Amino acid sequence: MRVVEAFRAAFGADPETVWHAPGRVNLIGEHTDYNDGFVLPFAVPWGVTAAVSPREDQTIRLLSLQASSPEPVTMATREESRGWTRYVVGVLAMLGDRVRGADIAVDGDVPQGAGLSSSAALEVSVASALNDLHGLGLTPMEIALLSQRAENDFVGMPCGIMDQAASALCEEGHALFLDCRTLGSRNIPLDLAAKGLRVLIIDTQVHHEHAGGEYAKRRAECESAARKLGVPALRDVDDLAGALDRLQGDERKRVMHVVTESHRVEALVGLLRAGATSEIGALLNASHLSLRDQYEVSSPELDVAVEAAVRGGARGARMTGGGFGGSAIALVGEERLEGVKESVLAAYRERSWTPPRFLPATPAKGAHRLS
Ligand code: GLA
């Protein structure tokens, strides 16, 4: 393994453990996690492999095979971390006194900027390895929560639990149905190939600068709306029409999206359980329109990809992840795969946009130990 060789070359010994954790795509349930709603992500075949050994002192040495420098970054304290190292040091910080220093080498192959949660993969791979090394006995959900806290409190990104939970808990061939309030979860079989279907990731390769700020703004709007409605979270809105009557402007639109989107997750799970996988397309389309018009987190590149995919024969398509760029997904019958790609490429060509990248998404396995 390449990361083990790099570890040995940099730190002069074999790593004591090696863990892999994947990125994710979200089938449906967007911007519902921090509203205590439902989500349905699955793990992608790309992720981060972390080779780790503990240290007796407080020193942290970090090597990334994707970094511009082949030299490890050495930090005497957790306060010194910058850039990508914050995701790793954040995890160490959340583990507190339970862990001292560590030597860590990471190797990742999550397509960068595609919105496939490379940061969650990094956090969860390192957290899982440290949990294993120090015999901490954390469950996969506890590892996800700790990784989310690292991102919230250390990196400063106010994300929900979806990405880290998907990375820690998904099973191969399944999507993870997660209740973001109770944190109860169930892996739902998603055997696309048996139905002659594929989920095609369309990576627009565009990432808008303001995404972080807009994400925090949406979260604040949801919290403000919940306060006005007198509920702990938008999850608790039962009477949607009544709630909408009491709100105005953007908050009204945000509530409309969150409440309907969370119900779409349950409806989609119902179809999957009934074996009606090819019927989920309409829910994907409805999710996209809601994200575009009510939640306002799509982008021209995502809208064009989704519309062209459907025109080209996809059963349904939607943006996936936080939005403002990143990727869309399309549910496509095998026989239509080339037609869908061609339709999307033609739409981009017409606008003189850089062609998107197509990635096949087969539901992969969550965090696991490699050696
Ligand atoms: C990002 C966040 C997740 C979730 C999605 C939107 O990926 O990290 O917690 O909120 O956006 O569904």
What does this structure look like?
The chain is 40% helix and 24% strand. It has helices at residues 2-11, 85-95, 118-133, 140-155, 162-169, 211-229, 240-245, 249-273, 281-293, 300-311, 337-350, and strands spanning 17-28, 38-55, 60-64, 73-75, 101-108, 174-179, 185-189, 197-207, 316-319, 325-333, 357-361, 368-369. The longest helix is centred in the last third of the chain and has 25 residues, at 249-273. The protein has eleven helices and twelve strands. The model has no long low-confidence stretch (mean pLDDT 96). It is α+β, with helices and mostly antiparallel strands. The strands form two sheets. Strands 1, 2, 3, 4, 5, 6, 7 and 12 form an eight-stranded mixed β-sheet that branches. A four-stranded antiparallel β-sheet has the order 9-10-8-11. The structure holds alpha-D-galactopyranose (GLA). Alpha-D-galactopyranose binds at residues 30-31, 33-34, 159-160, 162-163, 321-322.
Mean pLDDT: 96
Give the end-to-end Cα distance, rounded to a whole number of Å: 10 Å
Model regions low in confidence, pLDDT < 50 over at least 5 residues: none
Listing every helix as H and every strand as E from the N terminus to the C terminus, the arrangement reads HEEEEHEHHHEEEHHHHHEEHEE
Helix content: 40-55%
Molecular shape: globular
Strand content: 15-25%
Bound molecules: alpha-D-galactopyranose
- Class from helix and strand fractions: alpha+beta
**Biggest sheet character:** 8 strands, mixed
Total number of beta strands: 12
How large, in whole angstroms, is the Cα Rg?
21 Å
Secondary structure tally, helices: 11
